[in-house]
Write a structure and sequence with these properties.
The complex is a heterotrimer of chains A (184), B (439) and C (231). Chain A has 184 residues and is an alpha/beta fold. Helix content of chain A is 40%, strand content 8%. In chain A, helix 4 links the parallel strand 3 and strand 4. The longest helix of chain A has 17 residues. By secondary structure, chain B is an alpha+beta fold. Chain B is globular. Chain C has 231 residues and is α+β, with helices and mostly antiparallel strands. Chain C has a five-stranded mixed sheet with strand order 3-4-7-6-5. The chains are: A alpha/beta (184), B alpha+beta (439), C alpha+beta (231). At the B-C interface, helix 2, helix 9, strand 8, strand 9 and strand 10 of B face strand 1, strand 5, strand 6 and helix 5 of C.
Chain lengths: 184, 439, 231
């Protein structure tokens, strides 16, 4: 990427990471990707009562080239899947994906031939938000968690190490099917 | 097979040239005598196409010569999914088709099931009044979204903020009564899932008294506004003959002057007992439809007022315990569950109640074989349900005649010959909800 | 299916569906015997005149306008069923266009709105598997009527009424997409909901639901069409 990727790790890099994380999270522009019912709740979060403008996010960019965050709000059908991927590819890095609602996280109640069982089959997802549809407050909660994730993202060599750590943690984590006996 | 990456090749539609950029002069020489056709894709991901609608426009300059709709980007297979669930579970699926008017989907489905069961006359009065009330509130919230998104697509962003602000008050009412803002499976075959909670009637009265003043904000901003009229007056014209041929119903049909409203001509759920006007205009254009939506909202609030006056204490589910959904929900210590009263009743007092609860939840009730078609007047037009039963606990076939599906066919008739910007206004005035179109 | 019916000594009547087994999925280890239950659902019985309500007027107008209706040798329709306050006319595919035109144009009928086609697939009705159900509404007379046209799987052709009711354009495309009924005379019969290169017709009964088993904490829930459940 830019010069910040090439800085040697040390105090300078950590300061730059902090600034870059702060800047990126504070004006994360979502791409308009409302598909179904969740899109209406997403529009409601952008409207007056649950204001997304306080996070700098009320401007939903129509062009994916100007957007940072793709909120996949709604069920992704077989016909729509290549378009989801195309829009994701057209976004410039750094980019994040939030799977809003049960249908985009896992296929939701539509376990059938027409719906992709989770948009993570097509694009890498950073935050999964369950709900049918999730309330605007739930969406804002997910966005704040994403903001935390973004502000702690490292750059350069630290990023490589961070990715390795995440990968190792995921490899030793218990898969969901083995977490017997827990309801939540 | 022809090589699709060849520089040029012949098709039945004419010669097709493939250019990659910086080689335009290879084709300009050949263009003599050939008409220029540009096909523009207003693709499924677009801020102004009201959902995942693909508009394929053939344009000449700024004028649209041909407009086609590509749909199916939200096809969910709901109708097939319902064949594997029992009748009551069908309500949760059906509610998510036309997601801006969930109560209409549910009511139409439940009316169809009740028709096949033969219990239409046994639905309690209170259940019918609550159904009408929720449907009319839903009409208000749906028209608000239509105005809000229509305004946003044409550039009036404040209309979006106003519309969603008003909608929040209506969603508060939905949440109070049903527990969810959208997609609540509230209207069930036999009646309504739960009774109105304490304090609901006062809250509803308060809200409907406050809303007309807020509607004035939007009306003051847009009605008579020369920019708004310039964008919508005379745009998207579809006269009566066109509507009849294309099967358009709802505000599109009423904008031609015909007072066609199923609530008046074919009343259901006790609509014959309410006094309201059917709003018509005679301009047949997008501006007329917009005015109709504004005024229909006021009529709906009037109906809700009458509903509140008609509410009398009584049951909200049909008496036949083999059909009536038994569970009364309330929040238990673990955050979910049936009300303790109900559990005490089925575990301690009545064996039959326990059996009914068990059978209804696991197996569902049997609906006699046959088919029925029921239609309700949804905010977008005639929403019809064709229900086919084979005598079992699951629907054999449920097909929805969604108004947006049929109304969207009128896009070509409305848009061809107009400017690209008028396409947006016309589609916004049709107000299609892609969940209903694609199901 | 039909063999079981013959074995039971019943006459070989036309069946709508046969529901087998009380528990939808098999292989669950159930030994109660309810898995062998067979319910035969017969086709609706034709209704005799008088039909009641305004249905007799519709019938009278059709008989007056279409000579084919009168002669018993070449009837245009198989039967008329009146149930749940609705009239269903089972029309021969060859007469569909004439009946539809009469419904639209006759002043006494004036069914201006066609409310689309709904397809239904009855795999047990051999020779008549695919049904196309048309609903009509007359705004002038405030009436409704239903036409049902039957086609076999081996020859799934039904004439298209788009030339008479243009609103049926997308509805017929959708019915073709989901059931494979080919509407002859439709200007552009292509898939509309599924992707253009999709194989198969999803809402037929022999097309699987296509779900996947869902893993959760400690258990796997099979797809809806494979779960053990009541029929």
């Amino acid at each position: 990427m830019g010069i910040e990727e090439k800085l040697p790790s040390g105090v300078l890099l950590t300061t730059v990471e902090g600034l870059a994380g702060y800047a990126r999270k504070n004006s994360l522009w979502p791409a308009t990707f409302g598909l179904a019912c969740c899109a209406i709740e997403m529009m409601a979060s952008g409207a007056g009562r649950y204001d997304l403008a306080r996070f700098g996010m009320e401007v939903f960019r129509a062009s994916p080239r100007q957007a940072d965050l793709m909120i996949v709000a709604g069920r992704v059908s077989q016909k729509m899947a290549p378009i989801v991927r195309q829009i994701y590819d057209q976004m410039a890095a750094p980019k994040w994906v939030l799977a809003m609602g049960a249908c985009s996280s896992s296929g939701g109640m539509f376990n059938n031939y027409a719906i992709i069982q989770g948009v993570d089959h097509i694009v890498p997802v950073d935050i999964y938000l369950p709900g049918c549809p999730p309330r605007p407050e739930m969406l804002i909660d997910a966005l704040l968690k994403l903001h935390d994730q973004i502000s702690e993202t490292k750059l350069g060599t630290n990023r490589k190490r961070q990715l390795e750590d995440l990968e190792n943690a995921a490899l030793i984590a218990t898969p969901t099917i083995d977490q017997v006996g827990l309801m939540r | 097979m022809t090589d699709t990456y060849a520089a040029s090749y012949d098709t039945t539609e004419g010669r097709v040239f493939t250019v990659m950029g910086q080689d335009w002069d290879t084709i300009t020489g050949n263009a003599a005598g050939e008409t220029e056709r540009i096909v523009v894709n207003m693709g499924p991901q677009h801020p102004s196409t009201h959902g995942v609608l693909r508009l394929i426009l053939e344009i000449e300059g700024e004028t649209v010569t041909e407009a086609r709709c590509g749909i199916g980007y939200l096809h969910t297979g709901i109708e097939k999914n319902m064949e594997y669930r029992h009748w009551t579970q069908g309500v949760t699926f059906v509610t998510r088709m036309d997601y801006l008017s969930p109560f209409f989907n549910e009511t139409a489905y439940c009316l169809g099931v009740e028709k096949l069961l033969g219990i239409t006359d046994q639905i309690p009065e209170r259940a019918n009044v609550i159904r009408v009330m929720m449907m009319e509130l839903n009409r208000v919230s749906s028209h608000l979204v239509a105005l809000a998104t229509g305004g946003m697509e044409l550039g009036a962003l404040t209309a979006m903020i106003f519309g969603f602000r008003e909608r929040e008050s209506v969603l508060d009412l939905f949440e109070l009564v049903t527990g969810l803002r959208m997609n609540s499976a509230y209207i069930r075959p036999g009646g309504v899932a739960q009774d109105l909670p304490a304090g609901a009637e006062e809250k509803i009265r308060e809200t409907i008294k406050a809303l007309p003043r807020r509607f004035k904000d939007t009306a003051d901003m847009l009605v008579g506004n020369s920019i708004w009229m310039g964008r919508t007056s005379g745009v998207g014209i579809l006269d009566l003959a066109g509507c009849m041929a294309l099967g358009a119903t709802g505000p599109i049909l009423r904008a031609t002057g015909l007072p066609a409203d199923l609530r008046k001509s074919d009343p259901y759920c006790g609509y014959e007992n309410y006094e309201f006007d059917v709003i018509t205009k005679d301009t047949s254009d997008a501006y007329g439809r917009f005015l109709i939506r504004l005024e229909e909202m006021e009529q709906s609030l009037n109906i809700v007022d009458q509903c509140l006056d008609r509410l009398a204490p009584g049951p909200v589910m049909v008496e036949d315990k083999k059909i009536a959904w038994p569970a009364q929900l309330s929040i238990g210590s673990d955050g979910q569950g049936n009300s303790l009263d109900h559990i005490r009743h089925i575990m301690g007092e009545s064996m039959e109640a326990l059996i009914h609860h068990f059978k209804l939840v696991t197996e569902g009730f049997n609906v006699p074989a046959g088919q029925a078609y029921v239609a309700v007047e949804s905010p977008r037009g005639e929403l019809g349900v064709h229900v086919v039963s084979d005598g079992g606990t699951r629907p054999y076939r449920v097909h929805y005649r969604d108004p947006s599906f049929t109304n969207l066919q009128a896009t070509a008739a409305m848009c061809e010959g107009s400017q690209i910007a008028d396409v947006i206004a016309a589609v916004a005035s049709i107000d299609p909800v892609m969940g209903g179109v694609d199901r | 299916m039909n063999d079981d019916v013959v074995k039971a000594g019943l006459p070989l009547l036309q069946v709508t569906t046969v529901r087998e087994g009380m528990f939808g999925a098999s292989g669950s280890g159930d030994t109660s015997g309810f898995g062998g239950l067979v319910s035969v659902v017969p086709v609706p019985v034709a209704s005799a005149q008088p039909f009641g309500n305004y249905f007799d007027e519709i019938y009278a107008e059709l008989v007056a306008a279409l000579p084919l209706f009168k002669s018993s040798a070449e009837k245009a329709f198989d039967k008329i069923v009146v149930a749940h306050d609705e009239m269903t006319i089972y029309v021969h595919p060859t007469e569909l266009l004439a009946v539809a035109r009469t419904l639209r144009d006759e002043p006494g009928l004036r069914f201006e709105l066609c409310l689309g086609v709904s397809g239904v697939h009855y795999p047990n009705q051999t020779g008549a598997e695919l049904h196309a159900v048309y609903h009509f509404r007359s705004i002038t007379h405030n009436r409704r009527v239903r036409l049902e046209v039957v086609a076999a799987d081996s020859h799934p052709h039904i004439p298209s009424i788009v030339s008479i009711y243009p609103t049926n354009d997308w509805h017929e495309r959708e019915t073709f997409d989901f059931f494979g009924i080919i509407f002859d005379g439709h200007p552009h019969l292509t898939r509309i909901q599924m992707p253009d290169d999709w194989q198969g017709h999803p809402q037929r009964k022999d097309y699987p639901l296509g779900g996947i088993p869902v893993e959760y904490k400690g258990a796997t829930v099979p797809a809806p069409d494979e779960r053990r459940s009541y029929n």
